[in-house]
Design brief:
Blueprint: H1 2-24, H2 30-34, E1 42-45, E2 51-55, E3 59-60, H3 70-80, H4 92-105, H5 115-123, H6 133-149, H7 152-162, E4 164-166, E5 169-170, H8 172-180, H9 189-198, H10 211-227, H11 233-240, H12 257-268, H13 271-274, E6 284-287, H14 291-318, H15 320-330, H16 336-345, H17 354-357, E7 359-366, E8 373-377, H18 404-413, E9 421-423, E10 429-430, E11 438-439, E12 451-453, H19 454-459, H20 463-474, H21 476-485, H22 507-518, E13 522-524, E14 529-533, E15 539-542, E16 547-549, H23 553-568, H24 574-577, E17 586-591, E18 597-603, E19 608-615, H25 628-631, H26 633-646, E20 660-666, E21 682-688, H27 705-709
Parallel strand pairs: 1-6, 3-5
Antiparallel strand pairs: 1-2, 4-5, 6-14, 7-8, 7-19, 9-12, 10-11, 13-16, 14-15, 17-18, 18-19, 20-21
Helix pairs in contact: 3-9, 3-10, 5-6, 5-7, 9-10, 10-11, 14-15, 14-26, 18-20, 18-21, 18-23
Length: 710
């Protein structure tokens, strides 16, 4: 009998050991336990440390146990595991109590899991959550291993950072922010009790959705804390009288969403190479964005876009022809009357109409020397209109006259001068045999003139002059090569019409190209990320500036000076008299023939900025008078003025390099001024030293010369 009993027990023991060994095969090893890192939120930060966006699957943020209020830990121990500091991972008393209760009630209502066992479930999916004997055994085995691996303080920290508090929040730091809008170390006693009260059923006891149940749970937690001696009766009475007050915190989806998405896409290009998971590893991504500049851009962009929207709305409401065309392009089922009502009342424009009826835009600001993207807007900012198409980095739009600096630069490089003159007269180009189809470029205002200098051509944005530069001086292939050198990657057709900016460009690339002109011919690749850190602050990767000299600084100085004329006397002059910006600045307006695209691109020694305004459908005009100076320049002007009001940029100008010389010319002959030229005809002009006028003015000469000739 004894032998049989012994053999039975022995066999049972062997089976049990074998079963436990089998069960433990897919449980975490000691090494895995030591390396455990819970999934945590990755954060994208601006250059000045402002949170731009969080990346996560489950929202979880890490907090050190030393930052957690003692009341929170005491509340947790009171409710979940009051013998936490005494047991070694499992509580024999708790198990016995649970078995007795469950047997008597014929149910599995009574839990017996310690904090360590709950942590085991939170840490490893292999354990599972179903109430079975197998799950309990897995909990026991893993809990014992956890207790061997970590101190009690470390276990408490891991638990507080992994437990689910509802509404997608994992960890006490995230829960505190979501429910109370504050840091963990600012939690009051009653708030600690509310959070711990959530744990058995976060959805049922949510203070957002079920405030009465949340208060009942809070009071229960406080009572248990009092009974266990963690708080006094006076503290209990004081806190159960408090009303439920929560300052809910939600992420702000409206702050730099297009820049954040650009950063996310850039990270996805290198995540495998760096062996990182953007959504689980708790990374800290430091970016180049300047929060002050971004805020200014958003405010001025929104104001400018609404004004542009009002213009096109008026045109749609007063022009049946334009409205009919817009509806035809949209292939919409909306009637003309219903669209008019939408536009009149300022209702949200339906999605199917937006390409033709919603004015869009993009703005990019780059620091010329570093390539840092300081600000970016990729489309409408309103929640109802925000989308995932970043027009700053993805849109390919015709640049119009903002492409012309590449044309004039190429002419200067080939020996022509700011004083080189061409005829400002109509041009007709046959596009096929027999001239059935003809190209007749015109100046934007329909004007014509006589011989006109290259400086005046760019200053007044004269299409006829830029076309003649391409046709008579340099050829379209040379212009394409210049644009390529400045980082324009989009297809560039080698045709005479390149003079009018028919090649599509991306706003980010044209901003970088203008930044190279600001930076003395050194092109710096735009970057959005400066470094990536892991959750412990260790640097995973740093991003270096990549620069190359693409054009000689002497050439660039002369081109830049011609572009400054645009601001001082040309199409961008309102930047001075209307927007009161008096720092050294150069730039160019741009408008496509159909006025589907309006641009202003400009730069100072510190910043390069491009503004594009248009419709997503390039077949729709912004308005009959919506030139770049009307639609885009106001956004640039207000933004650059406000940026310089806020940022403490030193007063700086570009220094004239050794290869450039200033000479006095006569504005009648555009040759070197002689002593006989009247003072009113004398004007300073700059030239490359290797390309300067060789003759003196012959129009004005010594008045006694005619007597000598006799």
């Amino acid at each position: 009998m004894f032998l049989n009993t012994f053999l039975l027990l022995f066999a049972g023991g062997i089976v049990t050991v074998f079963y436990l060994v089998t069960l433990s095969r897919d449980l975490p090893s000691l090494n895995e336990l030591q390396q455990f890192n819970p999934d945590t939120v990755s954060k994208i930060l601006s250059a000045d440390g402002k949170l731009i966006k969080e990346l996560y699957i489950h929202k979880r943020d890490i907090v050190k146990v030393g930052e957690v209020p003692k009341d929170l830990i005491n509340a947790l121990i009171s409710m979940e595991d009051h013998r936490f500091y005494e047991h070694s991972g499992i509580s024999i008393r708790g198990i016995a109590r649970a078995v007795i209760v469950d047997v008597l009630t014929m149910s599995t209502r009574q839990g017996a899991s310690t904090i360590t066992q709950q942590l085991a479930r939170n840490m490893y999916n292999t354990i599972g959550f179903k109430k079975t004997i197998t799950r309990k055994l897995r909990e026991f085995l893993t809990a014992i291993q956890i207790e061997k691996t970590y101190t009690k303080a470390e276990i408490m920290e891991l638990y507080l950072n992994s437990v689910h508090f509802g509404h997608g929040s994992y960890g006490v730091k995230t829960a505190t922010d979501i429910y109370f809008g504050k840091d963990v170390n600012e939690l009051s006693l009653d708030e600690c009790a509310i959070l711990i009260g959530l744990l058995p059923a976060p959805a049922r006891y949510s203070p957002r959705n079920h405030p009465e149940k949340a208060l009942e749970r809070r009071n229960l937690v406080l009572r248990v804390m009092m009974n266990r001696g963690y708080i006094t009766e006076a503290e209990y009475q004081e806190n159960i009288e408090k009303e439920l007050v929560g300052k809910e915190s939600y992420p702000d989806p409206g702050w730099a969403p297009y820049f954040a998405e650009h950063v996310r896409r850039e990270l996805e290009k290198i995540d495998e190479e760096l062996d990182i998971n953007l959504y689980k590893d708790g990374l800290v991504i430091h970016t180049t964005l300047d929060s002050e500049i971004q805020r200014i851009l958003e405010a001025e962009f929104n104001d400018g876009i609404l004004k542009n929207q009002a213009v096109i709305n008026r045109e749609y409401l007063t022009s049946s022809r334009k409205l009919s065309k817009g509806l035809s392009l949209a292939n919409s089922t909306f009637s003309a009357d219903s669209v008019k009502e939408i536009l009149k009342s300022g209702q949200t424009i339906p999605k199917e109409l937006r390409k033709q009826f919603l004015v869009q835009g993009a703005v990019v600001v780059i620091e010329p020397g570093t390539g840092h993207i300081l600000g970016m807007i990729g489309g409408r900012q309103e929640d109802e209109y925000a989308d995932h198409f970043n027009r700053a980095t993805q849109a390919k739009r015709q640049p119009g006259s903002v492409f012309k600096p590449f044309i004039y630069m190429t002419a200067l490089e080939n020996g022509f001068m700011p004083t080189t003159r061409l005829l400002n007269q109509p041009i007709e180009v046959c596009l096929d045999e027999g001239c059935i189809n003809r190209w007749n470029p015109q100046n934007h205002d329909g004007s014509t003139g006589l011989l006109t200098t290259l400086r005046d051509g760019i200053k007044r944005s004269l299409n006829l002059i830029s076309v003649r530069v391409v046709q008579e001086l340099i050829g379209p292939g040379a212009v394409k090569n210049s644009a390529r050198a400045f980082g324009i990657s989009t297809p560039i057709p080698v045709v005479d019409a390149i003079a009018l900016g028919v090649a599509d460009v991306i706003p980010l690339e044209i901003t970088a190209a203008y930044a190279a002109i600001a930076n003395n011919g050194i092109l710096t690749e735009p970057i959005a990320i400066t470094r990536i850190e892991d959750r412990y602050g260790r640097v995973i990767k740093e991003f270096d500036t990549v620069s190359r000299e693409v054009k000689d600084e002497n050439l660039i100085y002369v081109l830049r000076d011609m572009m400054r004329s645009v601001i001082e006397e040309g199409t961008g002059a309102s930047l001075r008299w209307k927007y009161k910006f008096y720092r050294p600045v150069a730039g160019k307006t741009g408008t496509t023939n159909s006025k589907a695209d309006a641009w202003f691109c400009g730069f100072t020694p510190q910043l390069s900025m491009a503004v594009w305004v248009g419709m997503d459908d390039p077949g729709v005009s912004l308005g009959t008078k919506q030139f770049g100076s009307q639609a885009a320049l106001p956004i640039f002007g207000n933004s650059i003025h406000d940026i310089y009001e806020v940022k403490n940029y030193p007063l700086a100008d570009w220094d004239m390099p050794d290869g450039v010389i200033k000479l006095q010319i006569c504005t009648e002959s555009y040759e070197l001024a002689s002593q006989w030229c009247p003072q009113e005809f004398k004007k300073d002009e700059i030239f490359l030293k290797k390309y300067v006028p060789r003759k003196e003015c012959e129009i004005h000469s010594n008045p006694f010369q005619r007597f000598r000739d006799k």
